[in-house]
C-alpha cells in the first residue's frame, strides 16, 4: 500500500527557514496537505492542494510538491511554530487517506 | 463557525465495542463537497485515518480496520458516529472527528477538527 515518509525531527534557529519533507512514490502526482499539531491540541490545516494556505495561516508557511517529494517551508521561523507537522495524501488505488509519520519541529 | 465535538465512553473493555459520536454545529452535515471522518492518534504517535462517510452516505474505511469499523450518520441530528468492535489495547488512542473537504476523487483534506477524546481499552 502507498506510504509517505517524513524525517522524525527538524531543528531551526529563530528567524531562519525550516524545510520539512514528505516523500512517496510519484507523490507529485497526488495532492498533499500539511497540518501542524501542538501538544494536547488537535491538528490544524496549514496547507492544502499542495501549496494553498487557508485563511488565517501566516504567509511564512509555503509548500511545493514535485517528483517524489513534497516540501513545507517555514520562513522566518518563530518560537510559536514549534510543533509536530504531518503531511497527508490520498491513496486512490486503495481508497485510503495516508498520513506521514510526523516531523517534530524544534526552534532552538 | 463550524464546531465538532466528540463524545462517548472514555473507557472500554477489551473485546467490546468502542462507540463515539461527533456532534456538528455551525454547519450542515449534509453539505455537498464534504465528508465526515474519524482519525485516531495513539499516545506519542502519529495520525491514523479510520474512515469517513460522504454526504451521499457512502463510506470509506481504512483497509487495516475495515473488519472492525462502522461509521454512520444521523443527518437530521447533525451528528455522525464511530463503532469499533473487538477492541484491544492497541486501540487505546485519542480519537478525533473531522470534516473532510472533497474537491475530487483524489483531492481530500481535513479542514476542521474536533478537540479529540481519549479512549482507553482496559483488560
Helix/strand layout:
The complex is a heterodimer of chains A (108) and B (123).
Chain A: E1 9-12, E2 18-23, E3 33-37, E4 44-47, E5 61-66, E6 69-74, E7 83-91, E8 96-99, E9 103-107
Parallel strand pairs in A: 1-9
Antiparallel strand pairs in A: 2-6, 3-4, 3-7, 5-6, 7-8, 7-9
Chain B: E1 3-8, E2 11-13, E3 18-25, E4 34-41, E5 47-54, E6 59-61, E7 69-74, E8 79-84, E9 93-104, E10 107-113, E11 117-122
Parallel strand pairs in B: 2-11
Antiparallel strand pairs in B: 1-3, 3-8, 4-5, 4-9, 5-6, 7-8, 9-10, 9-11
Rg calculated over all Cα atoms of chain A: 13 Å
Count of helical stretches of chain A? 0
What's the helix count of chain B? 0
Structural class of chain A: mainly beta
Biggest sheet descriptor of chain B: 7 strands, mixed
Q: What is the global morphology of chain B? A: globular
What is the first-to-last residue Cα distance of chain B? 40 Å
Helix content range of chain B: under 10%
What is the N-to-C succession of helices and strands of chain A?
Answer: EEEEEEEEE
Poorly predicted regions of chain A are: none
Query: What gyration radius of chain B follows from the Cα positions, in whole Å?
Result: 14 Å
Q: Which pair of chains has the greatest number of interface residues, and how are they split between the two chains?
A: A-B, 26 and 23 residues
Q: Which word captures the global form of chain A?
A: globular
Give me the secondary-structure category of chain B. mainly beta
The stretches of 5 or more residues of chain B where confidence is low (pLDDT under 50) are: none
Mean pLDDT of chain B: 94
Return the string of H and E elements of chain B. Answer: EEEEEEEEEEE
Strands of chain A, total number: 9
Report, as a whole number of angstroms, the end-to-end distance of chain A. 36 Å
Strand content of chain A: over 45%
Amino acid at each position: 500500500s502507498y506510504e509517505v515518509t517524513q524525517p522524525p525531527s527538524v531543528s531551526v534557529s529563530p528567524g531562519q527557514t525550516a524545510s520539512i519533507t514528505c516523500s512517496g512514490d510519484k507523490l507529485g502526482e497526488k495532492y498533499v496537505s500539511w497540518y501542524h499539531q501542538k501538544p494536547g491540541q488537535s491538528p490544524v490545516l496549514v496547507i492544502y492542494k499542495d501549496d494553498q494556505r487557508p485563511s488565517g495561516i501566516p504567509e511564512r508557511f509555503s509548500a511545493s510538491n514535485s517528483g517524489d517529494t513534497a516540501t513545507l517551508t517555514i520562513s522566518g521561523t518563530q518560537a510559536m511554530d514549534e510543533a509536530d507537522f504531518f503531511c497527508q495524501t490520498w491513496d486512490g488505488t486503495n481508497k485510503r487517506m495516508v498520513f506521514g509519520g510526523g516531523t517534530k519541529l524544534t526552534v532552538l | 463557525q463550524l464546531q465538532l465535538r466528540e463524545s462517548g465512553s472514555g473507557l472500554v473493555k477489551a473485546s467490546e465495542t468502542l462507540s463515539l459520536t461527533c456532534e456538528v454545529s455551525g454547519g450542515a452535515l449534509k453539505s455537498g463537497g464534504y465528508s465526515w471522518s474519524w482519525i485516531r492518534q495513539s499516545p506519542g504517535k502519529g495520525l491514523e485515518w479510520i474512515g469517513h462517510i460522504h454526504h451521499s452516505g457512502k463510506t470509506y474505511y481504512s483497509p487495516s480496520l475495515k473488519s472492525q469499523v462502522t461509521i454512520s450518520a444521523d443527518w437530521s441530528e447533525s451528528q455522525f458516529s464511530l463503532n469499533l468492535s473487538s477492541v484491544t489495547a492497541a486501540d487505546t488512542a485519542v480519537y478525533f472527528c473531522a470534516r473532510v473537504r472533497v474537491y475530487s476523487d483524489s483531492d481530500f483534506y481535513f479542514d476542521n477538527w474536533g478537540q479529540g477524546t481519549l479512549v482507553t481499552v482496559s483488560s
